[in-house]
Amino acid sequence: FQVKSENKKTIWNTEEVPEGSEFDDTWDPREKPEYEIFFKQHVGTEDVFFGMTGKDPSTACCEDIVIKIKLPETKYSDITLDIQDKVLDLRTPKKKLLLHLPYPVNSKEGRARFLSDEETLEVTLRVSRKFDFIN
């Protein structure tokens, strides 16, 4: 198997490089913060009682991804957040998180809020899915 390239001196194609790798800096001394990923779906009575829509509790039926990131001793103004379709890049003076997301998201429709009493950044992203028999 050989990949053909336009330029004979290149050693890989741009399609082979994963999205978000331009943000990855292995020499950055900042530590990775603790985080949790949750999946959220919207259900109604037709789902709970009748099972009419075919939704189940799996991540394949979820509409949103919620990421909670612990940022102790951080102010809201110190946070830099960049969201691509498959990558979340968070940077503060003391912490750095490059997270490859489990599903592609709509990067234009996300929302984030900083809970200062819990020192947590909560990022909610809408999953971008092709329509199938479930969604």
UniProtKB/TrEMBL annotation:
Residues 32-127 form the PIH1D1/2/3 CS-like domain. Belongs to the PIH1 family. GO terms for cellular component: cytoplasm. It comes from the Eukaryota. GO terms for molecular function: dynein intermediate chain binding; protein-folding chaperone binding. PANTHER family: DYNEIN AXONEMAL ASSEMBLY FACTOR 6 (PTHR21083:SF0), TWISTER (PTHR21083). Pfam families: PIH1_CS. This is PIHD3 protein. GO terms for biological process: axonemal dynein complex assembly; flagellated sperm motility.
